[in-house]
Amino acid sequence: MQAATWQLPRTLGALRRSQFSEERTVRRSVKDEVRGNLIRKLQCGEPLFPGIVGFEDTVIPQIVNAILSRHNFILLGLRGQAKTRILRSLTTLLDDVLPYIAGCETLDNPYHPISRQGRMTVEEMGDETPIAYLRPEQRYVEKLATPDVTIADMIGDIDPIKAARLGQNISDELTIHYGLLPRANRGIFAINELPDLAGKIQVGLFNIMQEGDVQIKGYPVRLPLDILLVFTANPEDYTARGKIITPLKDRIGSEIRTHYPKSVEHGMTITRQEAWLERDSAAGICIPGYLREVIEQLAFVAREDKRVDRRSGVSQRLPITVLENVVSNAEQRALALREPLAVPRVLDLYAAQPSITGKLELEYEGELKGGEAVARELIRTAVGKVFACYFDGVNFAQVTQWFELGGTLRLEEKCDSATLVRQLKSIQGLLERTAALGVGPDEPDAVRAAGAEFILEGLYAQRRISRSEEYGFYAEPRHQEVAEDARERRPERRRQFN
Asked: In angstroms, rounded to a whole number, what is the distance separating the alpha carbons of residues 437 and 288?
């Protein structure tokens, strides 16, 4: 329902004579309201959940069915699967404004108050009862479930100070300090990580969901709340930290499974949408498309790697934060070298390891190897996969031969782009191959250097050349010479210590 602020009636009498008819307000529950607005959006072809990508054929149809069925529902999924974002977007299915009795803690319907405070106000003031209005975002209440949450937090408790101030008997309903659930009346109440909620609190939830009555300090209080209850949970937490008790699970109408992006393209769309890239900087930022693919592929590779705990999952926040970190490292380099353009390189991807290791829960094998080592191998694998897509069947014999003849190339991070391009030109046929990446000879030096470095890193990922921190890129025979030289010098060191 749309209404301009200056047209909204401010008393119950004016409300009865307005577009907020008693028939519509009394009989339309929150679930009916959400259902009705969803039906209107479906008929008009409007987007249901703007910004949610990759769920169009899986999760969203199930959510639509749950809403059309007037169900309370739960989203089950690993971390970083947009569960909370989906719940918060449910406010788009609420009316623009909703009238309630002004000053009423439980946001009572003016025509049908459920609390004693609301009933007394209407009885005493009649048509002069003051009316206030709620916006959609005010009708969404979210609570993160933690083991220390109490019944008082969720439902309410007796407030002795309030009783003394009002001169009421402590058993009177007017002395209750209402918790989150009553204050979410006529709205959407979301609980994140439901299994973390203590069992006795879950009992209080399903009692108020089904029967609408609660007991506060032994006093029965009838609260027929009008609420759409939605939850999120990680399925692995059922045994790891807690569980959803059976009676509550039985009262949740629909259980909907979320998932990670099923394609790199969907993942890239999400990352582009969420990453902070529109930043104010002295250097312009140009992110190569192939590097975006590598960053997204990194998350896909990590989710399949046996050294990473699949039960924990790899959040979609990983490629988002990695992209931001990669851009920041390129920006830092451009500013230090006073270059007008910051172009991220594969080198920056390795520099972004702090945004990778913190998001990987490793299995025993991964712990033995170490988070940084696992991250470097994941980057190498991701580069190899993307490189194969761009250069499948391309002949790089001319490039690899340059290294086999003894050439080595170390690309310094603090080296300016023009110098890098001059170094890369010494490798015959390398810069010409960047055309497959959409990099032409007229592109800025920073773009050309980034493309050539990606090719070298791709050849390294396919084990056609080698790379080390000391020597940079080189051919395998050179690696053997280094190893043999090290073995020859090792006895001398022992003798020195002896």
From this structure: 9
